[in-house]
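Lab meeting prep.
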Amino acid sequence: MKLGIPILIVAASSLLVACAAKKSATEEKEAPKPPSGPTLIGRIASVPQDKRFVLIQSYGKWSAESGQILTTRGPDGRSANLKITGEKLAEFAAADVQSGEVQTGDAVYSHHSPKPVISPPAPEVSEIQRDPNSENVQKNN
Protein backbone atom coordinates (compact mmCIF):
# COMPACT_ATOMS: atom_id res chain seq x y z
CA MET A 1 0.00 0.00 0.00
CA LYS A 2 2.95 2.32 0.58
CA LEU A 3 4.02 2.09 -3.08
CA GLY A 4 0.48 2.77 -4.34
CA ILE A 5 0.22 6.25 -2.80
CA PRO A 6 3.37 7.70 -4.46
CA ILE A 7 2.30 6.24 -7.82
CA LEU A 8 -1.14 7.79 -7.35
CA ILE A 9 0.41 11.19 -6.50
CA VAL A 10 2.69 11.07 -9.57
CA ALA A 11 -0.23 10.11 -11.83
CA ALA A 12 -2.47 12.87 -10.43
CA SER A 13 0.24 15.53 -10.80
CA SER A 14 0.96 14.40 -14.38
CA LEU A 15 -2.73 14.69 -15.19
CA LEU A 16 -2.90 18.21 -13.73
CA VAL A 17 0.14 19.34 -15.71
CA ALA A 18 -1.32 17.91 -18.93
CA CYS A 19 -4.66 19.65 -18.34
CA ALA A 20 -2.97 22.98 -17.60
CA ALA A 21 -0.89 22.76 -20.77
CA LYS A 22 -3.96 21.90 -22.85
CA LYS A 23 -5.94 24.83 -21.42
CA SER A 24 -3.21 27.38 -22.13
CA ALA A 25 -2.92 26.16 -25.73
CA THR A 26 -6.69 26.53 -26.14
CA GLU A 27 -6.61 30.05 -24.68
CA GLU A 28 -3.91 31.06 -27.15
CA LYS A 29 -6.04 29.84 -30.09
CA GLU A 30 -9.04 31.86 -28.90
CA ALA A 31 -7.18 35.18 -28.77
CA PRO A 32 -9.21 37.66 -30.84
CA LYS A 33 -7.54 38.85 -34.02
CA PRO A 34 -8.50 42.10 -35.69
CA PRO A 35 -10.47 41.53 -38.88
CA SER A 36 -8.27 41.78 -41.95
CA GLY A 37 -11.06 42.68 -44.36
CA PRO A 38 -14.44 44.39 -44.26
CA THR A 39 -16.91 43.18 -41.64
CA LEU A 40 -20.65 43.07 -42.31
CA ILE A 41 -22.25 45.17 -39.56
CA GLY A 42 -25.76 45.92 -40.79
CA ARG A 43 -28.02 47.07 -43.57
CA ILE A 44 -29.52 50.32 -44.84
CA ALA A 45 -32.87 50.58 -43.04
CA SER A 46 -34.12 53.76 -44.71
CA VAL A 47 -33.10 56.42 -47.19
CA PRO A 48 -34.96 59.75 -47.00
CA GLN A 49 -36.04 61.54 -50.19
CA ASP A 50 -33.07 63.96 -50.20
CA LYS A 51 -30.64 60.97 -49.98
CA ARG A 52 -28.12 62.98 -47.96
CA PHE A 53 -28.18 60.62 -44.99
CA VAL A 54 -29.31 57.09 -44.16
CA LEU A 55 -30.35 55.02 -41.17
CA ILE A 56 -28.30 51.89 -40.59
CA GLN A 57 -29.77 48.92 -38.75
CA SER A 58 -26.98 46.99 -37.04
CA TYR A 59 -26.91 43.19 -36.98
CA GLY A 60 -25.41 43.13 -33.51
CA LYS A 61 -23.56 45.24 -31.00
CA TRP A 62 -21.11 47.56 -32.69
CA SER A 63 -19.47 50.70 -31.47
CA ALA A 64 -19.52 53.17 -34.32
CA GLU A 65 -17.53 56.27 -33.55
CA SER A 66 -18.57 59.61 -34.94
CA GLY A 67 -16.66 60.29 -38.15
CA GLN A 68 -15.96 56.62 -38.91
CA ILE A 69 -16.22 55.73 -42.60
CA LEU A 70 -18.37 52.75 -43.64
CA THR A 71 -19.00 51.25 -47.07
CA THR A 72 -22.14 49.80 -48.62
CA ARG A 73 -22.71 47.26 -51.33
CA GLY A 74 -25.92 46.74 -53.27
CA PRO A 75 -26.99 43.54 -55.05
CA ASP A 76 -26.36 45.13 -58.46
CA GLY A 77 -22.79 46.24 -57.64
CA ARG A 78 -23.64 49.71 -56.35
CA SER A 79 -21.42 51.02 -53.57
CA ALA A 80 -21.24 54.08 -51.38
CA ASN A 81 -19.18 55.59 -48.61
CA LEU A 82 -20.93 56.68 -45.42
CA LYS A 83 -19.70 58.79 -42.51
CA ILE A 84 -21.17 58.05 -39.07
CA THR A 85 -22.80 61.15 -37.57
CA GLY A 86 -22.82 59.89 -33.98
CA GLU A 87 -26.62 59.88 -33.66
CA LYS A 88 -27.82 56.48 -32.47
CA LEU A 89 -31.07 54.99 -31.16
CA ALA A 90 -31.22 51.30 -30.18
CA GLU A 91 -29.89 49.31 -33.16
CA PHE A 92 -30.19 52.26 -35.57
CA ALA A 93 -27.45 54.77 -36.37
CA ALA A 94 -27.41 57.74 -38.74
CA ALA A 95 -24.74 58.29 -41.37
CA ASP A 96 -24.13 60.93 -44.03
CA VAL A 97 -23.72 59.78 -47.63
CA GLN A 98 -20.24 60.87 -48.73
CA SER A 99 -20.25 59.34 -52.22
CA GLY A 100 -22.07 56.75 -54.28
CA GLU A 101 -25.67 55.60 -54.35
CA VAL A 102 -27.53 53.75 -51.59
CA GLN A 103 -30.87 51.95 -51.43
CA THR A 104 -32.81 50.33 -48.64
CA GLY A 105 -31.46 46.86 -47.92
CA ASP A 106 -27.86 47.48 -49.04
CA ALA A 107 -25.22 45.76 -46.91
CA VAL A 108 -23.09 47.99 -44.66
CA TYR A 109 -19.47 47.10 -43.97
CA SER A 110 -16.90 48.39 -41.51
CA HIS A 111 -13.18 48.26 -42.17
CA HIS A 112 -11.03 47.64 -39.13
CA SER A 113 -8.46 50.37 -38.75
CA PRO A 114 -6.76 50.32 -35.38
CA LYS A 115 -6.05 53.65 -33.80
CA PRO A 116 -2.41 54.58 -34.22
CA VAL A 117 -0.26 54.52 -31.14
CA ILE A 118 0.75 58.07 -30.40
CA SER A 119 4.20 58.28 -28.91
CA PRO A 120 4.99 61.18 -26.61
CA PRO A 121 6.73 64.07 -28.33
CA ALA A 122 10.49 64.23 -28.01
CA PRO A 123 11.72 66.90 -25.63
CA GLU A 124 12.88 70.04 -27.35
CA VAL A 125 16.61 70.52 -27.47
CA SER A 126 17.39 73.94 -26.10
CA GLU A 127 20.36 76.05 -27.02
CA ILE A 128 23.59 75.35 -25.19
CA GLN A 129 23.23 76.86 -21.80
CA ARG A 130 26.06 78.89 -20.39
CA ASP A 131 27.49 77.99 -17.05
CA PRO A 132 26.80 80.99 -14.76
CA ASN A 133 30.12 80.40 -12.97
CA SER A 134 32.23 80.64 -16.11
CA GLU A 135 33.85 83.91 -17.05
CA ASN A 136 32.73 85.83 -20.10
CA VAL A 137 36.06 86.29 -21.85
CA GLN A 138 36.35 87.91 -25.25
CA LYS A 139 39.21 86.82 -27.43
CA ASN A 140 40.88 89.21 -29.83
CA ASN A 141 42.82 87.90 -32.76
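Slide two material, second protein:
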Amino acid sequence: MTSITPRPETLRRDGGCLCGAVRVSARVETEVQACHCVQCQRWTGGGPLFCVPVSDVTVIGEDALTAYRASDWGERLFCATCGSTVLWRMQDRPINYLAVGLFDDQTGLRVTDEIFIDHRAPWLPPFPGAAESSEAQEMVKLDAFLTGATL
Protein backbone atom coordinates (compact mmCIF):
# COMPACT_ATOMS: atom_id res chain seq x y z
CA MET A 1 0.00 0.00 0.00
CA THR A 2 1.35 3.42 -0.96
CA SER A 3 1.16 6.14 1.63
CA ILE A 4 0.17 9.58 0.39
CA THR A 5 1.43 12.61 2.26
CA PRO A 6 -1.47 15.05 2.58
CA ARG A 7 -0.95 18.58 1.33
CA PRO A 8 -0.95 21.20 4.06
CA GLU A 9 -4.20 23.01 4.58
CA THR A 10 -4.62 26.12 2.41
CA LEU A 11 -6.52 29.27 3.20
CA ARG A 12 -7.50 32.18 0.93
CA ARG A 13 -5.85 35.31 2.33
CA ASP A 14 -5.50 38.94 1.27
CA GLY A 15 -2.92 41.47 2.30
CA GLY A 16 -0.58 44.19 1.23
CA CYS A 17 2.41 46.36 1.89
CA LEU A 18 2.60 49.13 4.47
CA CYS A 19 1.52 51.93 2.12
CA GLY A 20 -1.08 49.90 0.19
CA ALA A 21 0.58 50.32 -3.22
CA VAL A 22 0.86 46.51 -3.47
CA ARG A 23 -2.05 44.23 -2.61
CA VAL A 24 -2.00 40.45 -2.82
CA SER A 25 -4.54 37.67 -2.72
CA ALA A 26 -3.46 34.03 -2.61
CA ARG A 27 -4.16 30.53 -1.43
CA VAL A 28 -1.84 30.29 1.55
CA GLU A 29 -0.52 27.11 3.13
CA THR A 30 -0.54 27.08 6.92
CA GLU A 31 3.10 26.01 7.20
CA VAL A 32 5.52 28.95 7.58
CA GLN A 33 9.23 28.80 6.76
CA ALA A 34 11.72 30.92 8.71
CA CYS A 35 14.91 31.68 6.78
CA HIS A 36 17.78 32.71 9.05
CA CYS A 37 20.36 33.45 6.32
CA VAL A 38 22.35 36.64 6.74
CA GLN A 39 20.70 38.24 3.69
CA CYS A 40 17.22 37.65 5.12
CA GLN A 41 18.27 39.03 8.50
CA ARG A 42 19.50 42.23 6.88
CA TRP A 43 16.51 42.46 4.56
CA THR A 44 13.99 42.12 7.39
CA GLY A 45 15.90 44.19 9.92
CA GLY A 46 17.18 41.46 12.21
CA GLY A 47 14.98 38.41 12.36
CA PRO A 48 14.35 35.70 9.83
CA LEU A 49 12.24 36.11 6.73
CA PHE A 50 8.96 34.42 7.55
CA CYS A 51 7.40 33.23 4.31
CA VAL A 52 4.56 30.95 3.39
CA PRO A 53 4.00 28.80 0.30
CA VAL A 54 1.26 30.23 -1.91
CA SER A 55 -0.65 29.39 -5.07
CA ASP A 56 -3.30 31.09 -7.17
CA VAL A 57 -1.60 34.46 -6.53
CA THR A 58 -3.03 37.79 -7.65
CA VAL A 59 -0.90 40.93 -7.28
CA ILE A 60 -2.40 44.39 -7.66
CA GLY A 61 0.14 47.18 -8.00
CA GLU A 62 2.87 44.96 -9.41
CA ASP A 63 4.40 48.05 -11.03
CA ALA A 64 5.24 49.29 -7.49
CA LEU A 65 7.50 46.26 -6.91
CA THR A 66 11.26 46.54 -7.21
CA ALA A 67 13.49 43.48 -7.55
CA TYR A 68 16.94 43.20 -6.02
CA ARG A 69 19.03 40.33 -7.34
CA ALA A 70 20.93 39.34 -4.22
CA SER A 71 22.63 36.28 -5.74
CA ASP A 72 23.13 34.50 -9.04
CA TRP A 73 19.82 32.69 -8.60
CA GLY A 74 17.50 34.60 -6.26
CA GLU A 75 15.74 37.91 -6.20
CA ARG A 76 14.03 39.84 -3.43
CA LEU A 77 10.98 41.92 -4.27
CA PHE A 78 9.84 44.85 -2.17
CA CYS A 79 7.54 47.84 -2.46
CA ALA A 80 9.44 50.73 -4.03
CA THR A 81 7.25 53.23 -2.17
CA CYS A 82 7.36 52.02 1.45
CA GLY A 83 10.10 49.36 1.34
CA SER A 84 7.92 46.51 2.64
CA THR A 85 9.32 43.04 2.12
CA VAL A 86 7.04 41.20 -0.31
CA LEU A 87 8.75 38.03 -1.53
CA TRP A 88 11.87 36.04 -2.33
CA ARG A 89 11.92 33.85 -5.43
CA MET A 90 14.21 32.19 -7.92
CA GLN A 91 15.01 34.81 -10.58
CA ASP A 92 12.25 35.33 -13.12
CA ARG A 93 10.19 32.44 -11.72
CA PRO A 94 6.55 32.50 -10.66
CA ILE A 95 5.67 33.61 -7.15
CA ASN A 96 5.44 30.61 -4.85
CA TYR A 97 6.26 32.20 -1.47
CA LEU A 98 5.10 35.47 0.08
CA ALA A 99 6.19 37.21 3.26
CA VAL A 100 3.78 36.35 6.06
CA GLY A 101 3.70 39.95 7.31
CA LEU A 102 1.76 41.02 4.22
CA PHE A 103 -1.37 39.15 5.20
CA ASP A 104 -4.22 40.93 6.96
CA ASP A 105 -5.17 37.70 8.76
CA GLN A 106 -2.36 35.44 9.96
CA THR A 107 -4.43 33.12 12.15
CA GLY A 108 -3.84 29.40 11.71
CA LEU A 109 -0.25 29.81 10.49
CA ARG A 110 2.70 28.20 12.29
CA VAL A 111 6.45 27.92 11.77
CA THR A 112 7.18 24.36 10.65
CA ASP A 113 10.53 24.78 8.93
CA GLU A 114 13.68 26.76 9.81
CA ILE A 115 16.49 27.02 7.27
CA PHE A 116 20.04 28.36 7.58
CA ILE A 117 19.82 27.67 11.31
CA ASP A 118 23.57 28.03 11.68
CA HIS A 119 22.95 31.77 11.16
CA ARG A 120 20.00 32.08 13.57
CA ALA A 121 20.38 35.21 15.71
CA PRO A 122 21.65 34.21 19.16
CA TRP A 123 18.74 36.01 20.83
CA LEU A 124 16.13 34.00 18.89
CA PRO A 125 15.27 30.54 20.24
CA PRO A 126 14.29 27.69 17.89
CA PHE A 127 10.61 27.27 17.09
CA PRO A 128 9.30 24.18 18.92
CA GLY A 129 8.63 21.27 16.58
CA ALA A 130 10.00 23.00 13.46
CA ALA A 131 12.26 21.04 11.13
CA GLU A 132 15.75 22.54 10.91
CA SER A 133 18.41 22.62 8.19
CA SER A 134 21.81 24.28 7.93
CA GLU A 135 23.31 26.44 5.18
CA ALA A 136 25.24 23.43 3.86
CA GLN A 137 22.06 21.35 3.66
CA GLU A 138 20.19 24.13 1.88
CA MET A 139 23.03 24.64 -0.62
CA VAL A 140 22.89 20.92 -1.50
CA LYS A 141 19.14 21.30 -2.16
CA LEU A 142 19.75 24.45 -4.23
CA ASP A 143 22.45 22.78 -6.30
CA ALA A 144 20.16 19.82 -6.97
CA PHE A 145 17.37 22.19 -8.02
CA LEU A 146 19.61 24.23 -10.32
CA THR A 147 21.10 21.14 -11.99
CA GLY A 148 17.81 19.26 -12.19
CA ALA A 149 19.07 16.44 -9.97
CA THR A 150 16.80 14.68 -7.52
CA LEU A 151 17.63 14.16 -3.86
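Talking points for slide two:
The chain has a mean pLDDT of 92.
The chain has two helices and ten strands.
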